[in-house]
Amino acid sequence: MTTKIINLSARLMAAAVLATTASFAVAQDMTPELDAWLKANELGSYTDGTEDWDAIVKAATAEGEIIIYSASGRIAKLKDHFEALYPGITLTLFDLGSVKTIEKTVREQDAGIFAVDVVSTGNSGQVINELLNKGRIYNYVPTQYMDRIPVENRDPLLIRVNEALVFFYNTETFSDGPPISNVWELAEERFKGRVGIKDPMASGSTLMGLASLVQHPVEMAEAYKRLTGEDIVLGDGVPDAGYEFVARMLANDLVIFKSGSKLADAAGKAGQDDAMIAFTNMTYISRNESKGNVNAIIQDLDPISKLVYPTFTSIAREAPHPNAAKVFTAYLLGSTDINIDTKIAKPYLEGESFDLLQGLAPYHDAGSVSPRSDIPLPEGGEIWGEMEGWVVSDQFMWTQGPKLRDFWLIQSSQ
């Protein structure tokens, strides 16, 4: 989907591109053109922690446009509000999904095409290793947000939002409450053909969720023994309990969806007697309100209830509109007028609430958490801190992700 957006120009500037990342990028491919671009725009090794925000806004308005490659279509909801705040800058948004966002960025830059300004996507292993570490994107944190964002959310790359994969159950089908207390129950006969997942071959977030489980084979094996009282027996060619869970889920006729929202709707539609369990993005719980679903989140699962994954935002190498990219980055982080005690009322995408949240507004829900430490949780978001979670490792994704993909393809074809 291509969405036109006009405008971008507010406050944003001064960033911190990791020195190590910058030097690594230099070693990778530092052309005279790239060095001149970095120096002119005070990015990479030329970042000094100071900036003239008024000058950046003025320059962004003169640039007149910003082009974004995004893994999330929700950014399109910012169009009218952004244009009203920052008239004069046209925003062109390409809603590509995480896999295609990375593919398009790499393919174009390898061909010498530098057409995008902001790259915002998940799939941490590739983002860090294929984009950041190879100098295809640069980290930028506006100085006015530096002390509002914990270091782990801005180093080595700015996190735009943290989200999670969880398990939904239909509260009408399972009126007595959550139908499982251990993830291994999903591989039992009673759930054969009744567990859904978005295709991890097309969804970076789903692949990261599976990788988080595979990354913890000891914990997965211990959870299996707590459920069954027995040590797990691995199938032929299965290396550990994490992979065994994936294999058993597929063998139990796991239902694979192309769309996460359609999966949430299929699981949560009212009036079902035999609804499936959905392994999907926590943010889709908001569709209970917008679509009339009756889903609930299984909050207490052994060994884990939520699998956290980050979505990053960055400035692309040799971006044609770098100042507009800086302005938009600040907008995505929300107004500096917000603090932890600020009362923000629904609807978040209207009026004063939108003015405060700005680019955070479409993601201010129970399944998303801002990288800032001073943003109050949205209504219903209190459960985020109550659920045990594992955070996907970008290095595990990078080194083991291809192996997991191959394993999935082999097991799903049997």
Description:
This protein is α/β, with parallel strands linked by helices and about 425 residues long. The chain folds into two domains: about 1-160 and about 310-375, 3-Layer(aba) Sandwich (D-Maltodextrin-Binding Protein, domain 2), CATH 3.40.190.10; about 165-310 and about 385-410, D-Maltodextrin-Binding Protein, domain 2. The chain is about 35% helix and about 15% strand. It contains 15 helices and 13 strands. It has helices at about 20-30, 30-40, 55-65, 80-85, 95-110, 125-130, 205-215, 215-230, 240-250, 260-270, 285-290, 320-330, 350-355, 385, 395-410; strands at about 1-5, 65-70, 90-95, 120, 135-140, 160-170, 195-200, 255, 275-280, 295, 305-315, 370, 390. Strands 1, 2, 3, 4, 5, 6, 7, 8, 9, 10, 11, 12 and 13 form a 13-stranded mixed beta sheet that branches. Residues about 1-25 have low confidence and may be disordered.
List its traits.
414 residues; alpha/beta; D-Maltodextrin-Binding Protein, domain 2; 13-stranded mixed beta sheet; 15 helices; globular; disordered N terminus
